[in-house]
Amino acid sequence: MTRLEKFPYFISYFLGYRKSNHNKKPIPQWRVYVWSFLAAWIGIALLEIIFTYSESFQNHDTPMIVASFGATAVLVYGVIESPLAQPRNVIGGHTIGSIVGVIIAQLFLNIQHNWISESQKTAVTWVGGATAMALALNLMQLTKTVHPPAGASALIAVVTPNIVEMAWFYIAVVVVSAIVQVTIACLMNNVERRYPQYWWTPHAPIKIDPLTVHTLMPSSDEKVPEEVVSDNLTEAEEGRLQNRSVSSQVSTCTSVGVVEHALLVLRKHVDESDTPFALISPGLPIVATHGLLSPSEYETLELLLQKLNAKAP
């Protein structure tokens, strides 16, 4: 059970959770455009209202909006399935970008107040801006929070004079902006779409290299204990089966019993990991998580399998 399942469904629904029997209905493209427009308008307008009329922000000469959040709006309202638009990347990326930008601004610009010439300050500014953006990128890569607009948040903190004067308060402005954008995205994008796809890590599919599939379904003349097959499956899922030598002589005759056994191991593994799945293969019955397929969907897949079986050599 995921953590979102513990919330009432009307709450978890707007946090991106869907039940296994949820029937996703395609919507016309024009409605996608309408929802994107409305969400982006509300998200940007709300930030402008907060920073324009809030006395606590105006006391620090906060700009109406940090420009990098225009780019964030494109991602979280228009390309909502992208990994770059998920909450971890949006909030984490902007937080890292703002912190790095402020630190570089303090080190490069605020320590020295008596510049020899304006050209010297200009040179230090562009060097600091490039340093902040590049360093923020590396930290986002290390933390898996890459969010392109966050690079602009780091850059703005160094090259925009009034932002440099805000110093550490700029971090609060950026974090609040990121949280507001994600909140509006959750409310608006879940009316007819789904956002986020995940909060922390994506649901990675089971990865099985075709060259190593024989480790899951050994040839009929090999007897492999269930524990070995299960261990091999786990290794394949985690992507650790790399550069393993494959015998040039792989048996082309695999018994149905071994195949069925491998399917049972696969199903058991997926059931224990609480991951919805459907397995469809010619000559074999449809195997799916309970409640995942509706009766009409099941019948459609049965017809498709019949056609595949009819055309099989």
Cα(first) to Cα(last) distance is 43 Å
Poorly predicted ranges: 240-253
Strand order of the largest sheet: 1-2
Shape by Cα distribution: elongated
The amount of beta strand, in percent, is under 5%
**Extended strand count:** 2
- Taking Cα atoms only, what radius of gyration do you get, to the nearest Å? 27 Å
The overall pLDDT average reads 81
What helical percentage do the residues reach?
Answer: 55-70%
For the record, the count of structural domains works out to 3
Give the helices and strands as they follow along the chain.
HHHHHHHHHHHEEH
Per DSSP, the total helix count is 12
Largest sheet: 2 strands, antiparallel
- SS-based structural class? mainly alpha
Key words describing this protein structure:
mainly alpha
Structure, described:
The protein is mainly alpha-helical and 313 residues long. It is built from twelve helices and two strands; from the N terminus they run H-H-H-H-H-H-H-H-H-H-H-E-E-H. It has three domains: 3-189, no CATH class; 204-275, no CATH class; 276-313, no CATH class. The protein is 57% helix and 1% strand. The two termini are 43 Å apart. The model is unreliable at 240-253 (pLDDT under 50).
